[in-house]
Structure formats: structure tokens, C-alpha cells
Amino acid sequence: MASQSQSSQLVNWKMLMPMVTLILLCLARPTLCDRRDLELDDTPVPENLMYHGGSVLHGDIPVYIVWYGAFTPEQKAIVVDFVESLTSKPATTTPSVEQWWTTLYKAYMSNATADGGATRVLLDSEVGDDKYSLGKALTLAQVSQLAAGARPKKGGLVLVLTDADVVVEGFCSIRCGQHGADARAGWAYAWTGDAAAQCPGQCAWPFAKPSYGPQDKPLGAPNGDVGVDGMMVSLASMFAGAVTNPFRDAFYQGEKDAALEACTACAGVFGSGSFPGYAGNVLVDKDSGGSYNAVGAGGHKYLLPAIYDPVKAGCSTSV
User: Where in the sequence is the signal peptide annotated (predicted)?
Assistant: First the structure.
């Protein structure tokens, strides 16, 4: 009887795996579930993600950070270390944030710029709004308004980050983040938020138990902050999408309004051997127990999403 019960449980978990995949892909690609049925497949991307001839962000990319809500100095340091570690500060150990960026650059930006020159990410300025000037319930239009308020230069990227008390249109239900742009002005933005209080199972996985499917033990948050460490996963994914497909006409696969991009094409993949519901073989800090696959120049650790390689037609991981 015990053997039959265990077999039944295994079958039930296997039946639930496709549901977990569906949820992860819907959060990474918001309109996918609204627009058409999802066809589950072992292949990460059913069609090759390709270049459509549009502009990417390149050269010197000034980055502006908008802190909407209350963030602690350490939470801000986690984000700033990630941005500065992309190109501005040399890596002190491997695998590094710089290596993740280099993989992205070689697979995408280097193939879309005429001069083929280097691209540098430069932190320009930070703006704090701990008084919640637009309230604690934001529409996507207001997120764009906050980005515009940073007064970005042409070719710039604004990171709009909302704290755990802020509810944003569609957050948790159909998205964990989003990127957009002012095509006329030539700048882009990426938004995500701290999901610790609202939906850790959706937008802070794998550092929290998923809302659906097998309830395996969560991975340890690399910096000890489930909300912000989970936010960094979404931020890295939206950052990659914003620089490689800022105006929805560069690198993507599928429909423009429901496109798979550099990282969303590899949703839920963080290390080798990954499968739906399992992040893959990642590194574990022996002291803190935090799981990671990249280290910043300032010493912070991150679990960064895999990058889709259009040439190899597969997800590239650093570990």
C-alpha cells in the first residue's frame, strides 16, 4: 500500500510540472496566457529568437535608478553593485556579473551595431521617492511617468523599483516586471518590485515556495533578502530585454506584444540541468547557504537568469 501511495504521489507531481512551467512562462511573458494556448515542449524556444533590424542600446548606456518607496541602504547596495559590476568595475571573482553581461553582449548587441564597438553601462544618477508621490497603487502609465521623471538622456535606461508596499497594475497576477520605452526620445526603462509581501511564490521564486506545484524547499536568498534577491532575478531579465529589444523591433521571438526575449526565453533556468520547477545546478555559499551563479564586484551574490543563445539555439548558463 505504501509503495502504491508513493507511486501515486510521483505521478501527481509529474502531472503538475507542466502547470509550473505555464505559470513561470506567463509571468515572464505577460500576454502569453491571455492571447493563446501554451504548447509545452522540452525545447526552450519553439522558433529561433532572431534579430528584426531594430535598434539596441549600445555605446555608453547611462543608467538611472528610481527608488519608489522605502528601501534600506543595503537593499540599494545590492542593486547598485549589480549595475556597476556589468562593465564599470572589474570582476574580483568568478562566475561574475561581468561574465553574464559579456555573454549578453556577444550574443546580441555585438551583432546589431554597425561599429561593433564596446558597450559600457554607466550609473548616472539615483532618485528617491520614499513619500510615494503617486500613491501606493500604480498603473503602468504611472510607472512610465516615474521613468520619465528621471530625465534620461537618449540611449539611456531607467530602472524603476517599487518597494514591498506598492501595488502595480498586473504585478503578481500576470507579470513580475516589465520594460518599455519612449521611442521618440530614444530611452528605455525597466520596472520590477519587491514581491516579499505580495506574491513571493510567483515573483521571488526560487527563494520562496511556488504558489502551485511541488512544494520543494526554496533556495537560500544569496543576500539574505527574499524580496530584493527575487527582485534582482526579474530586474536582470527586464534589463536584458530593455537593452536588446528596447523599442520592440530588435531581438525577439513571436509577436511583438507577447515576445520572448534574451532572458524570458529561458524563464526559470539558472544553472545546468534545469527543468520546470528546478532552478538547476547552482553554487551555494557555504557560510550563508545562499544560492547564486554570479558575484558582483562589491561582493554581493546574485542568481541571474540564463541567456538565450540564438546561434546555439539554447539557454546559456554560467554554472
Answer: 1-33
CB 221 within 8 A of CB 284: no
Q: What is the dihedral of CA 147, 33, 253, 211, to 10 degrees?
A: 70
As a whole number of angstroms, the distance between CA 73 and CA 64 comes to 17
Please, are residues 49 and 310 in contact by the beta-carbon 8 Å criterion?
A: yes
Predicted TM-score (pTM) of this structure = 0.85
Amino acid letter, residue 6:
Q
pLDDT range class, residue 236, cuts 50, 70, 90: very high
Q: Which three cell numbers stand for residue 68?
A: 519608489
Q: What are the contacts of 40-48 at 24+ separation with CB within 8 A?
A: 44/265, 44/266, 44/269, 44/308, 44/314, 44/315, 45/253, 45/260, 45/265, 45/308, 45/313, 47/253, 47/254, 48/253, 48/310, 48/313
pLDDT, position 118: 83
pLDDT tens track for 118-171: 899 999 999 999 999 999 999 999 999 999 999 999 999 999 999 999 999 999
Is the pLDDT reported for residue 19 higher than 50? no
